[in-house]
Amino acid sequence: AAQIKSGGFARSVISALAFSGLPASRLELEITETVMMDESDTVLRTLSQLRELGIRIALDDFGTGYSSLGYLRRFPVDKIKIDRSFIRDLDRRDTAAIVRTVIGLGIELGITVTAEGVETEAQLD
What we know:
alpha/beta; TIM Barrel; four-stranded parallel β-sheet; globular
């Protein structure tokens, strides 16, 4: 969060891509909700700039912190990663409903959804 808010993060990523020769389209940066909490213009500008280069932005551990659906509207996010704690508790009716809802939300918004920690056929179903 501190790196992104500092204002030089995009330049650092661009430099690392140039040094490595990795195409921007092959890079996916995982950020947590704490990055978005202050909703600063610097964070929005940085994430937008990176996304314009073709870098994908993944929102990691979605639902475990200070989740706000407004983040999905305000910030450029390509992927939502559902935290494994939700997958581990899928046998609970309320947890299963949350996971189904987040997946449905991702589908409706055109955002890829990854569920971390799927290990059994039952969890996959």
